[in-house]
Description:
Residues 39-137 form the DUF6265 domain. Pfam families: DUF6265. It is built from 1 helix and 10 strands. By secondary structure, the chain is mostly beta strands. It has a single domain (39-159), classed as Lipocalin (Beta Barrel). The longest helix has 14 residues, at 2-15. The N and C termini lie far apart (68 Å).
Amino acid sequence: MRLPFLILTTALLCAVPAPLAAQSAPKPPRPATGPALPEWLAGNWSMEDGALWAEEIWTSARGGIMLGIARQGFGANLESWEMLRIAVKGGALVLTLQPSGGGTAIDYPAVLTSAESIEFANPSAREHQRIRLWRAGQLLMSETSRIDGSDPARLNFRPVATGE
């Protein structure tokens, strides 16, 4: 009588899966290695100049990417918005801008970087061909222009408390 009990117990133990900790779970993809993301950009930023206003929100660098959203308006009206991301592509930092209205995403490779500034450029872009971001004390500065620096548009953002 002992033999069938042993056979049954062994069969049941073999049929029970190993504990979850012992199972090998698939590992998440490793973030791309390369240049450091501009951590100084993370935060909630706002600008007002009369009735003109703009806001940008950037996540901290995590998983090899920073995500941003931006919107701009006049008075109570929203004029534009866009989704942004900065990630390493092909060994270099690249800003990808997805405009509102379902337009095609545009890549802007970084051309200049420092501890508190970064400049992206894409000479084939129709509107903004050069995008420069930098910190001036507590402020976040943003300038867009043609590739030669003509037609500049500058915004000065102040940090916004997030209630944390």
